[in-house]
Known about the structure:
homodimer, Alpha/beta knot, six-stranded parallel sheet, two-stranded antiparallel sheet, 7 helices
Amino acid sequence: MAALYIALLHFPMRNREGQVVVTALTSLDVPDIARTARTYNVKKFYIVHPVESQRRIAMRLRDFWVSEEELPTRREALELVAIREDLEEVYQEIAQEEGVPPLVLGTTARAHLLPYPKLAWEEARRISGERPVLVLFGTGHGMTDELLAACDALLPAVRAGGYNHLSVRAAVAIILDRLKGEEP
Amino acid sequence: MAALYIALLHFPMRNREGQVVVTALTSLDVPDIARTARTYNVKKFYIVHPVESQRRIAMRLRDFWVSEEELPTRREALELVAIREDLEEVYQEIAQEEGVPPLVLGTTARAHLLPYPKLAWEEARRISGERPVLVLFGTGHGMTDELLAACDALLPAVRAGGYNHLSVRAAVAIILDRLKGEEP
């Protein structure tokens, strides 16, 4: 089984007006997405933030749950969390760990509106069973076009035709379920 | 298209030791689950809590987002939120609105361990297209057996064979996606 990695990014993101910003860490993302990652056998959940004080907060949240002996299921999930400064570092680390660079898949509610390469769900499921994959998730109003353009491919938007303003916590859950479902 | 309703319950729930408790409202459940509900065309998202002060908090959160003119996508989602004291009230309200009582589906990570009627996903998808359905979601360590026994049927647990300790925010997202996917 090929390794699946996910990364939650906080820069460069868009704000409501489309400007490029750094977003703040949302505390609940740490245990919520860690538990979803553990559920779908994700190998590592990277929280990527360029600001050191924000990385320290993420680290304290992670360490709190990892040291909490009475909640072993939380510990088991939070042990998957790694906090890094930038995406390049994450990419290199995975390449070294796996002996081959991961295929980088971007996610955005605007996938159908963008001129970048896309993978259908079925194809994404097949590929993620065959080689290491890193799925990127944005925060705020999503990743900038420049960042999405640098991905190997984008995953389809969830329910692109209608209201698509899911929280990142819900989007990670749906996308990992669409990629892995009940598969080991 | 038949109406789909969801309810987030806070009593009677189990705590870590299996005792029956009332759980506290988690603030982020309100906008997170409302946005997921809106995404999957849920007709109403009921937050059910027996304690008046907790209902007041939920109402203030709802009203804050509904009055926030600069975030119309939040308002559109939060308008689906209704706050009620008990499940019976929710059931009667839906029966009156729809002219027929809803089929009540329970959700639990322990579905495969319990002797209550279950629906396969395919069957649940078909039924939810044909008649009004109310899907119940628990908090804390999940709904009591008595409450699950009173449901018409249970939905299958998500990834029952492995780690299944999803946040309720993630569980709602995955379960609504499995019921509706890309369907209108």
